Amino acid sequence: MKKYIPILKQTKLFDGLGEEEISAMLGCLQAKQYSYKKGEYVFRQGECLSNITVLVEGNLHIQKDDYWGNRSIINTVGVGEMFGEAYAAPGSGTLLNDVVAVEDSTVLFFDVRRILTVCSSACKFHSMVVQNLFFAISEKNRRLVQKLGHMAKRSTREKLISYLSEEAKRQNSGTFTIPFNRQQLADFLSVDRSAMSNELCKMRDDGLLTFEKNRFTLL
Amino acid sequence: MKKYIPILKQTKLFDGLGEEEISAMLGCLQAKQYSYKKGEYVFRQGECLSNITVLVEGNLHIQKDDYWGNRSIINTVGVGEMFGEAYAAPGSGTLLNDVVAVEDSTVLFFDVRRILTVCSSACKFHSMVVQNLFFAISEKNRRLVQKLGHMAKRSTREKLISYLSEEAKRQNSGTFTIPFNRQQLADFLSVDRSAMSNELCKMRDDGLLTFEKNRFTLL
DNA sequence: GTAATTCGGTTGTTTTTACAACAGAAAGAG
DNA sequence: CTCTTTCTGTTGTAAAAACAACCGAATTAC
Fold it and tell me: Which residues 51-110 of chain A have a CB within 8 Å of chain B?
């Protein structure tokens, strides 16, 4: 687990802490490490969470499948990102979505109660971590609202423009890659894949953008 | 401002604190009180927030209008609820939405830095309030994900069922009222009002539900 | 009380999307 | 290398939503 400390140092959760301090906290927070093969579930809808987790290898999707097989991708989790933090509060209820590995992935689990309860031992960074937790979840909140903004658009084209513009802005470049293939992007925006594919090509023909695989350029 | 202390005592932000403690904190947090007439803006998109606010009277909508006048209602804020907390972190950027009073409303403003910085004076409840803040934003996060769930549904009927079912569950009753009129509900679910109205009536004819104004019963 | 405005429902038309089926290209397995 | 599977784009059709226009009822303003 030690080898992931440089990654943890980069996370929002441990922002401001040194490697030695993180190392000390790993024990204090009862960190556990699990690995998942591509396609495996990390969590399933309806489960009770008692951990905050950090992805240290791979890629995850937070998603939901309905009775008819329609998939909706809520969010992606990249290396260094956290998930499960919205269920840390007592009385949060059960998980609303599935969390699934879209690549071979490794996840660190931290005991929620250990984070929220100031421990008696030497590690005095709990209050800092709680504030980090608050900042991190704030950012997620803002991103969820942005996603709502994409999905609120009435047409597929507008949804695409809304999403791709944000991504360009976020990556500070008119050329950027997205973490989705076509089907996943359609599931993320809640539209039909073939219709979306069609719309993308029309937008290219209209001179709005170019693309190759998951690399896009806005014009 | 004192008269709102019983309301503040009921909020998630001050959960666990007594009236005297809240009273003390009002000064410590530099609370300010503002009132808004129906239709007035509390905040506008693009503003910088440096306050966490609590609604103590009235009703607010967090919403966004696009260039063509399409309105999208992100969320409602009821008495005792908080808003702006997602922008408390440094580097949060500017507000993505408008916040508007849909009734005559009164709002209390609290200085964010005062909340996050432990003050030197006697009031020792800051860490508790930060944790409360974290729990509150967690819940908002889960509700946003639920809203994404409604909006991810492909048809207007499914969106309605998804939203109304959740509302029934939340209010623990098959009969419940919603905080929207028809236009607002349409803006909330991002669909056309007349089409939605039509669909609601079809659903009633199909025996799925009954309604009168903003009072619904699921069958 | 009357006028004006808002609100909810209805209908017909146009536009958009979903759905289904297929084909070529690319990627992966053996 | 060859076979299989996945991925992306394409097309036509059916279904659904958006849009516009209108009406009566309810609410609000004066």
Answer: 64, 70, 72, 74, 85-89, 92-93, 96-97
